Sequence to fold (222 residues):
Amino acid sequence: MSRPVPIVVEPNALAPKAAEWIAEALRQGLAGGGRASIALSGGKTTGPIYRALAGMDLPWERVDFYFADERCVPPDHPDSNYLLAEQTLLRSVKAKPEQVFRMEGERQDREGAAKDYEARLPPVLDVVVLGMGEDGHTASLFPGTAAVEERERRVLAVVGPKPPPWRLTLTLPVLNGARKVLFVVAGAGKQEALKRVRSGENLPSARVTNAVWMLDRAAAGQ
Fold:
C-alpha cells in the first residue's frame, strides 16, 4: 500500500463510491461481449456496498459470482459470507444458481471442498473485493500463518483466530493474479493496521500488490 495513493472518502460516501468503482471494473470485464467474474468478501463494510451495487445498471446475467473466503458454516448461518451476499446483492440482481459459485464451507471434508473450489475458479478473476481486519488480515489469510506463504494452491482450508475458526480462502496467487482488486476499509479501528501496511510491514493485506485502496476518513485518520 505504500505505492498507490489511497482514495479517501467521507463515511457516508464509501458504499456508493465503492459500488461505482466495482461496477466500472465489471463493465471493463464485460466489454469484450463475454462474461465477467467477481469474488466477494464478507464483513460489516460490504453489505451497504453490495446494496448500492445491486442498483447499478449492468447486464447481471453475464456476471459470475465467486467468494474470496467463507466461514465453515452452512449457507443459511448468520456468519456465512454467502448469506450476506445473497441478502444484499444476489437476490436483488436475480442471479441464477449457475452464476453463483459458493464455497461449500459446511462440508466436513474441508480439504476436498477447497480442492473442488480450485477446480471451479476461472484462470483469472476480473474483480476481487477485499476488506482488512484490525490485525491486517484479508480474506482468511491471517498474519504469521502458512497460508500467507502458499504459492501453488489457489484455495486452502485454514484456521483463523476468531470463531468460527475453520475457513476456506483464496490464496495470494489468486488475489495478485486478478485484473482488478479493491480494498474497502472503514472505521477508526483500522487506523493502526493501515499505518503498518503503509510502512511496509509484511502483513497479509500488504502482500496484495495490485490493489486500489478506498478508505473512509475514520480509517484514514491523519
Remarks:
- The longest strand covers residues 180-185.
- Helices lie at 14-30, 46-54, 81-90, 110-120, 172-177, 191-198, 217-220.
